[in-house]
Amino acid sequence: MTKIIFATGNANKVKEVKKMLENLDVEVLSMKEANISTDVEETGTTFEENAILKAKAIANKTDAIVIADDSGLEVDYLNKEPGIYSSRYLGEDTSYTIKNQAILDRLDGVAKEQRTARFVCAMAVIMPNKKVFTTVQTMEGYIGFESAGKNGFGYDPIFFLDKYGCSSAEMSMEEKNKISHRGKALRTTKKIIEDQLK
Predict the structure, then answer these.
(1) 93 near 107, Cβ under 8 Å?
(2) Which one from 63, 70, 105, 162 is the annotated catalytic residue?
(3) Which domain holds residue 78?
(4) Whether 70 is catalytic
(5) What is the CATH number of the domain that holds 97?
(6) Sign of torsion, CA 91 97 102 104?
(7) CA distance 173 to 170
(8) How many domains does the chain have?
(9) Residue 3, phi-psi category: left (phi > 0), alpha (psi -120 to 50), beta (remainder)
(10) What pLDDT digit, counting tens, does each position of 142-198 carry?
């Protein structure tokens, strides 16, 4: 069976990826499950550059297919912050409850029309022959006026979707995967892998 290593320490992301790729004849492993540990300095200036950096660092240690993503939140009113620093925003170990509240505070008094935001996901896949493929996908929405919902993780509770009238933390994983930045990126990546395995 073809092995795919997903380059992340984030258990929630691994769960999403396993779910999305479950009907492919592949075994998805986290870095921990594959016994690979490496710290990658995210020195890229874009989500795509960082995804490639992560994927290459792992691909150097294995012949398996490697998938890495770099994703984050861009808030237009805040000059697209936190952007590529989304996970490190306000410090590495700051909880998302604090990060989310900080963004809500910075947008205090800002009208809904100016609260536009998007989640961005860049995904890089490196095949065993070391060929690199990338895709960048987004999910458009706006920053709400308060946190809502217990599903999802990260910035999901403050990210609202007009069409659904709720935050992305109020959606089921199935609903979210259909429209999310990571869901779209994974579907494209899945297609790339299928084509390469033919």
Answers:
(1) no
(2) 70
(3) 2-197
(4) yes
(5) 3.90.950.10
(6) positive
(7) 9
(8) 1
(9) beta
(10) 999 999 999 878 999 999 999 999 999 999 988 888 899 988 999 999 999 988 888
